[in-house]
Amino acid sequence: NSSRVTEFILLGLSDRRELQLLFFTLFLLAYTMVLLGNLLIIVTVRTDPKLSSPMYFLLCNLSFIDICCTSVTAPRALVALLSGHKAIAFGDCMAQLFFLHFVGSSEMFLLTVMAFDRYTAICRPLHYTAIMARRACWALVAACWA
Where are the transmembrane segments (predicted)? Predict the structure, then answer.
């Protein structure tokens, strides 16, 4: 058999148009709330000088990764719900899968860095400022994206 797979058929939540519009509205609302909530965290951390500790720097980066993770899949799902076009090209599917795994693994590493930050703050409080200096935080976050 020499046939090639060129696209995948997305089996949605429903074939009824009314339900698709309801799901589109709910998913769009949830996606917008995720974006606005994470943007609010980023703006708050960046504008308030009292929130310049490593914990808030890492939280800000986690919010950015959350925006990226949500933005990998949600827009395509919203387009499929609104347009009714239930197929995705093989290349598009592979790109979406790659970015989802890339951002997901970056999030896992960032959560590990955040756990290390809290461990250092609790178990080694006298050494915390030396271990989690600004340069070290930037290096750890950069390593999450590498």
Answer: 20-43, 55-74, 94-116
CB atoms within 10 A of CB 74: 17
- Enumerate residues 6+ apart whose C-beta is below 8 A from 86: 9, 10, 11, 12, 80
- The structure's pTM equals 0.87
- Selecting from 3.90.550.10, 1.10.10.60, 1.20.1070.10, 3.30.950.10, what CATH number does the domain 9-145 have? 1.20.1070.10
pLDDT tens profile 78-111: 888 888 778 888 888 899 999 999 999 999 999 9
Instruction: Report the alpha-carbon distance of residue 91 to residue 36 in Å, rounded.
Output: 30
Q: Which residues of 94-124 are buried (b: 16+ CB within 10 A; e: fewer)?
A: eeeeeeeeebeebbebbeebbeebeebbeee
Backbone phi and psi for residue 52, each to the nearest 5 degrees, phi listed first? -105, 15
Backbone dihedral region for residue 13 (phi beyond 0: left; psi -120 to 50: alpha; all else: beta): alpha
